[in-house]
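Q: My collaborator sent me two sequences in one message, no labels, and asked for predicted structures for both. Can we handle them in order? The first one she listed is below.
A: Yes, handling them in the order given. First sequence, followed by its structure tokens:
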Amino acid sequence: MAFRALRLAATTASRRPSAASSTITRRLLSSQAANPVTHPDPAPSSESAQLVASHAPFMVATYSRPPPVFVRGEGSYLYDLSGRKFLDFTAGIAVNSLGHCDPATTKVLAEQAATLQHASNLYYNPWTGELSKLLVEKTRELGGMWDAAAAFICNSGSEANEAGIKFARKVGKVVDPTGEKVEVVSFKNAFHGRTMGSLSATPNPKYQAPFAPMVPGFKVGELNDIAALEELVTEKTCSVVVEPIQGEGGVRVATDEFLLALAKRCREVGAVLHYDEIQCGLSRTGEFWAHSRLPKEAHPDILTTAKALGNGFPIGATIVNANVAEKIKVGDHGTTFGGNPLACRVACAVVERLADAALRTGVKEKEKVFREGFERIQARWPELVKEVRGRGLILGMQLTQDPSNIVKAARERGLLVITAGENTLRFVPSLVMSEEEIREGLGILEKAFEAATEA
């Protein structure tokens, strides 16, 4: 640690004064002064630590969290229990695309909460159908999934993918009554969720091993390996599920050529093509859907979304074309909370905002600002920064070593960043973050690199 080096240098200097040791001490002191820790992690005796300690025994330990406790959000910032302000480059993992506590969304949420929150799927309400209609119409209008026909509304990304997998299995049963068309193909580094079906399509031993055996009938391929598709996707394949940009797997982009070839192969064998755009969709790339740039022959039969759909309120959706929709019958699937009027009315307001052309153009302009900052950092630390991947405001900086010290150094200077895949820093800020705020954050990130590399 830089602090340990400073202490050692100071101790050595006090014992054996020399010009060299004095120079080292002055240099380290100067570095500390120029790059101070402004937001140190709360001490064990702090109010935050005491609160965490009082709650921890009652919580199943499925997460490892840093010490700050966040109690308020506004726009691009989070505030902790001590009132300290943190610039957020994570947006709740690509969830708060309109920023924290967006006033317009909050107003809609409050109005609907006072009107009708839940009545169950035993009855109609105005908003489940309105959201389904809006998703289908905006998808087709803005260049995505040209034959989108209907939507199933649920509560999360895992649920959306679980529905997609079930729907595809049902299609396979109808197309091939022998029952052999049941295989689901996914790809290395994919992340599709943690329910047993979606987890079975997430080929990461860290996630799967504790809960094995997985649901049978899942195969794994290599993203962007066109030559392997003929053997990978066969007459037994009912579905291929793929992220156009893998988020959790390290912000790895599926090439246009691969997605075109994959779609072609799916059509050849009668398999359903399922795009998981839970993290990369809803204008995060600067297009309404990440696949909107592709010709319609590469569009999916199933499209899943969640995260940004509610700007923080839990909701997900599975959008399907008529070929899939006509094979799903009453009773094939269901949900207690999915499609509740509160979540759906909020999502309608969010979708309208995220579909705005000016917002989508802004995403592409803000990508340029990020890349300029990344180029500057890569130029300073070429041995550490290997490459930058992604599109729009889903970006990954691939490092040659564990970035956890950089994440900590950034947090202790007031910037929140997260990781993905192997040694990748992931950047998924709100889509309405200003260019000035982005530059502010990049400046802090550079300071974090300085602190981490000097440690």
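Q: And the one she listed second?
A: Here it is, processed independently of the first:
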Amino acid sequence: MNELFDPDWGFSTLGIRAAEPRTENGEHSASVSLTSSYVFGSAAEAAAVFQGKAPGYIYSRFTNPTVEAFERRLAAMEGGESCVATASGMAAILTLCLSVLNMGDHIVASRGLFGSTINLFNNILERFGLSVSYVDMTDVAAWDAAMQDNTRLLFVETPSNPLVELADIAAIAEVAHRRGALLCVDNCFLTPVLQQPLKLGADFVIHSATKYLDGQGRCVGGAIVGDAQRVGKDVFGFMRTAGPCMSPFNAWVFLKGLETLSVRMKAHCENSRALAEWLEEQPAITRVFYPGLSSHPQHVLAQRQQSGYGAIVSFELDGGRDAAWKLIDSTRMISITANLGDTRTTITHPATTTHGRITAEARAAAGITEGLVRIAVGLEDIADIQADLARGLV
């Protein structure tokens, strides 16, 4: 592992140079350590490593140089002390909750969460004695009012999926800490290029590395970033025992993805802003949701806590589901898939895909209508994206 990196390097430099997994062979491009276990020179050496008295790798479920390199690089980019990589973004959320919460604890979460996160909270965690209250993420007073004596964790995605609503991270962190709770921010939509929640007061950052950290739709993974005690020891301890780990190959893919993250996110933002402005001019569209537009209700907040507006643009069509499906089915280039974070533009109907398994009441509370369409804007020429959507807007 290359220890010679400067934490004061610029962001793009950290993404390329921090924690390079270089072996004695001197590889210029990061190598990948595909092995399940490691050998020792003696019984005494094995005992020392297993007991934590000497450095070394033991078993790739919890110690692997490629995974470690990805963890250390992402931690540096997020401004955190430690990172634990997981098998998926959902595994990261579950790992965090089971690491820092106990039976009887209470979570306050934003309503505008990814559908699988809501299902995890409602249908799995509640079976183990954890309770959840949902609030309007944009209303700081609502977060405060929902706090209980047993509240231990506040959880928010900002921007939200799919309406790209924003939460005031610093204000919600103040609510959490004043009441003895912790704040976790899902940052996969913006990545550390555009938003750094730890610097705004959050205790944990969650990533679905599957999205923009990879950037090309190749692998599934997740990550938790935070401090040396709660993440470096508590979360890592859960990982070591329970094993929801990231594969070394996937870690290598994500490590390479971090090298281009900065330039990719800036290009995504440029395309998304242009598309959102174009969509606002289309008569068939009644509303466009994008924080970079002055019409967005949290546009000023976005300017304050983000350095860019992201790649997710959602909009409502006159005509409900029929109009939404007609638009989606009219596309020829854009990929019809619920995944996002790819170089390729993707399109989906949230009410019947990403949020199709939650109740109609929960969708209505989150503002997810039948006429809502979500676009994850890729890196194709913007004129081609616009032309592909125009077919279904006539």
